[in-house]
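Per your request, structure below.
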């Protein structure tokens, strides 16, 4: 049987654990409130972050399409990460009708702003003619830009395309 003094450390660690959980929940709520306020004030980056919170299920949107609306607004405002996210929605048909052409449009916008994943996706689309006319040379140029930023999948695809070109020649 433990004495009262021996029980104090376990009671203390339980209290610390409870306090930590409470503090994290409070911090999360403060962060969400700040993002919501910034979004209401027209901050496009905050709109994108809020859309991600709705997408992840961390927050429940006020209406089913709120996340998509915020994401679209942030994409039109020029937030590259939002443009890529919206492009993937069109590519995969996630929350919108699948539309490869629209996906390529959004990947191109983000790629032109230097987003490596968008450059890879655009290069892949151009190389394979997905959502656009096949343009291998242009696709390879976009893949090379992604590779320069360290995109591994772009390097792999570039290697495959180079090997296929060498075999065809």
């Amino acid at each position: 049987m433990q004495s009262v003094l021996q029980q104090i450390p376990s009671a203390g660690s339980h209290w610390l654990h409870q306090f930590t959980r409470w503090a994290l929940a409070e911090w999360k709520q403060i962060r969400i409130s700040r993002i919501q306020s910034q979004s209401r004030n027209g901050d496009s980056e905050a709109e994108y972050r809020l859309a991600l919170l709705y997408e992840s299920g961390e927050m429940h949107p006020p209406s089913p399409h709120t996340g998509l609306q915020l994401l679209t607004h942030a994409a039109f405002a020029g937030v590259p990460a939002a443009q890529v996210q919206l492009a993937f929605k069109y590519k995969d048909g996630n929350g919108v009708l699948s539309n490869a052409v629209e996906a390529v449009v959004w990947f191109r916008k983000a790629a032109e702003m230097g987003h490596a994943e968008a450059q890879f996706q655009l290069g892949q689309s151009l190389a394979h003619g997905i959502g656009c006319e096949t343009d291998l040379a242009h696709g390879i140029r976009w893949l090379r830009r992604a590779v320069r930023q360290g995109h591994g999948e772009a390097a792999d695809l570039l290697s495959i395309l180079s090997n296929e070109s060498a075999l065809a020649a």
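Residues 126 and 135 are 5 Å apart (CA to CA).

Regards,
D.
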